[in-house]
Each structure stands twice: as structure tokens, then as C-alpha cells.
Amino acid sequence: MGSAGAGKSRRMPREVRERQMMDAAVATFGQRGYRAASMDEIAELAGVSKPLVYLYLNSKEELFTACIRREADALLAAVRAGVVERGIAPDQQLWAGLTAFFAHTAEHPDAWSVLYRQARTHGERFADEVAGMREELVSFVTGLLREAARATPTSAEPADLGDRDVVGVAQALVGAAEALAGWANETPDVTAREAASTLMNFAWTGLGGLMDGERWSAGNSAVVRR
Question: Which of the listed CATH numbers 1.10.760.10, 2.60.40.1180, 3.20.20.150, 1.10.10.60 matches domain 1-58?
């Protein structure tokens, strides 16, 4: 009776077992890289047999794809959750989103390695998965910037901040955040707030000028007002 009870106690719901395997896979892929990681290592870290990993997730490629999707969804959810308070100043909304982004990537370095390094360098299928996440991030940031443009008071003529400007700035901001997260995760003692502050200091001042109608001109190497 004792052994039967022990057997029952070891049984886990499928979703719990899958989460264990996915956690182990993210850690292994993030630390070892996609090519070097083996299903044996992942199974051992998860505390299950290799056949069970294959039973749940079919192949190494499908397992890696599932890891990308899960971690991309988690990152997007963290950023969106960081900007929950409506009616606050546009810069505070962007600050909240950036802080949430850097906090999540710092707290989940293996997941960030999977998304930022591994997925982008091991085949078009994986790169496409990450590209989808990036498009959603850019879309979210674009929405924040549009709100900021509408809310920013200016004593000058209304800024001609067209759709291409907004999307271009959002692309640049997301790209800068990705690069900064990679640096922050490899540099000791860089906090999420410090990383977010660095990017705000770099981006928001220039963005404020753009919203105020200022443009840099290559013709005279100066900022001109349109």
C-alpha cells in the first residue's frame, strides 16, 4: 500500500510535467546553445526520461520552438502588465514599460538568451518566431508613442509627427532596448531601473524635441524647427 501511495504521489498533471520540461529546456538552451544542448541533458535536468520528453514534445526542434513561444509570450505579458495605469504622463508610461522589460530580461537570463541569441542564429523558422514577438513589441511601443505625441503640449506649430516617424522611432527604441538588455545581463550590478533610466535619458530627450517639431538637418548640421 505504501509503494502504491508513493507511485500516486509521483504522478503529476500533464501541464506541470510539461512546465518542468520546458523550464529545463530553456535553461539548457540558454546556457549551452541550441546546437550543443542535448535531449538527454534536458531530460536529466527535468527529472524525467528522454522518451517522455519526446512523447510530450516530439523533437528537439519542436521543443525549442515551444520554448521561444512561451518565453516570447511571457516577455510581452510582462511589458504590457508594466503599463497598466492609464492617465499617467507619457514619459511615465514608457518608463514603466521599459522597466518591466529590463526587469523581466534580468530575472530570466536564460529565456533572454534563447530569444535574443539562440533563436535568431539557428534557422529561419526560429528567427521568424522571434520576429513575431518583436513586431508585437514595436506595435505596443508605437501605441505609447502615438499617445505621447497627442498628449505633448508645444508652444510651436503642431509637430508633423507622421506615422512613419512614430513607427521608425518605435523600431529604434525596441532595438536599443534589446541591445541594452544583452549588455545589462552581462554586466555585473546593472539594475532594471538603471538600464531603463539609461535608455530614457538617451531616447526621451530626443523624442521630446521631435514631438516639439525639431528635426536634425544634415544640410547645416543643426537642429531646425519645422
Answer: 1.10.10.60
pLDDT tens for each residue of 96-117:
999 999 999 999 999 999 999 8
DSSP state at residue 217: E
Return the CATH superfamily for domain 65-225.
Tetracycline Repressor, domain 2 (1.10.357.10)
pTM here is: 0.81
pLDDT digit string, tens, across residues 135-163: 999 999 998 888 777 765 554 444 455 67
Place of cell 498533471: 13
CB 145 within 8 A of CB 62: no
| Residue partners of 28: CB distance under 8 A and separation at least 6 | 37, 38, 41, 42, 45
Listed residue (53, 35, 55) closest to 45, CA to CA: 53
What's the CA gap between 186 and 49, in Å, rounded?
Answer: 33
Q: Alpha-carbon distance 92 to 41, whole Å?
A: 43
Distance CA(162)–CA(160), nearest Å, equals: 6
| CA nearest to 211, candidates 144, 164, 171, 166 | 166
